Amino acid sequence: MQINNGRSKEKQKTEIVSDGVLKHEQIRDLIREMIIGGELAPGSRVPSQNQMKRQFGVSHNTVREAIGSLVHEGLLYRIQGKGTYVAERRKRTVIGVAVPHLFSQTDPRNTLGYEVIAPLVTSIEDEARKHDATIMLRLCQNNPALESQNLLGLLEHNISGVIAFIIGGKETTDSLEKLTAKGIPVVLIDRYIEGLDLDYVVTNNYIGARKAVETIQEAGFDNILYVTLKPDNTTLRDRLAGVESAISKGTKIQKIIVEMEPLRPMNIARLLTLAYSKVKEAISSAKSPFAIFSANSDLLTASWCAVRELGFNEKDLLLGCFDDIPREVFNDTSAKLLRVIQPLDEIGRTGVQILMDKMHGKNTQKQTVLDPFVETLDPPSPNSVLIENLGAAYR
């Protein structure tokens, strides 16, 4: 796609469609890509607003807003009476991205990395590239001390801002405060820290959990087991509050909170084994039908292994969780399935956009909460071998 510079005698028109993205944003993104890709060289004059208005078939205000945004970003500059030109390329922006892990080194059963964190990092990197920025990734492997070191270590690399999916703790909070004290903008994703005045982009975990439990009740289940890790962060606290708010009269809910003595780094394998044992004990005398809803898919995996070992009639069960239900685990069940899908791509991209605004002088605080959606799934096709192997792993 090209912008007609007015010198061609052929009439060219680039169609800007309404596909959910505002027209001025489409024009802005097109010109930005041409600048970053070298199609529009530094110092070259871009077409006039009247020329672009005709080419794109949009209003003068739409073109003006697109150009103004790129001037604000520093990609274009105006010379009064002459026109708008491409600015000299600045030193590339580097965004520090701090996350717990992409793949658990201690236990492959921990799916948080590839279900949640990897999609977030992918969307962050893709959105950063659109802004001519690169990312510097730091992993702490669920170790708060290393997380704190990673955050402070980013200062040595002249980063322009930080996006962080934090596991928390005083060390992390202190490091975040040190970053902001040095003028480094920080945006949190997935969870926020109560009492710390930072920008963040998170899922509306309260609404997601509430809608999930309401859906479970509408499906005819009035006996619900909710399995969660100790609610020691805002994500888990909001999910627990959502579950509790949705319980209607006549519904029985049993909460299983899986916690253990503090470990640094966290031992995921031991946590899941403990979840398996606690769920097995809780349902050993239960009568079906009942539903199990968990705060994440790892806990549901552990719970399902306990359910399977006790020999419940699967047709009388509903199994649900936040994020993806591992199909390789549940490919032998006739239970009803439910999942709460987080808008991970939007979270990552919005985090970058907020950070770029901060780096370009927009100081308005943005604390963004995005709604997830609840999805029910058909039972997958039979295959019992993997379930049996996984059950043995938790025993």
Please give a structural write-up.
There is one protein chain. This protein has 395 residues and is α/β, with parallel strands linked by helices. It folds into three domains: 23-86, Orthogonal Bundle (Arc Repressor Mutant, subunit A); 93-203 and 344-362, Rossmann fold (3-Layer(aba) Sandwich), CATH 3.40.50.2300; 205-343 and 375-394, 3-Layer(aba) Sandwich (Rossmann fold), CATH 3.40.50. It contains twelve helices and 14 strands. The chain has a six-stranded parallel sheet, sandwiched between helices. Helix 1 (23-36) packs across helix 3 (60-73) and helix 2 packs across helix 3 (60-73). The chain is elongated.
Number of strands: 14
Oligomer: single chain
CATH fold-level assignment of the largest domain: Rossmann fold
Name of the CATH homologous superfamily of the largest domain: Response regulator
Count helical runs: 12
Regions with pLDDT < 50 over 5+ consecutive residues?
A: 5-11, 382-391
The residue fraction in helices comes out at: 40-55%
Strand order of the largest sheet: 4-3-5-6-7-13
Largest sheet: 6 strands, parallel
The mean pLDDT is: 85
Number of domains: 3
Cα distance spanning the termini: 59 Å
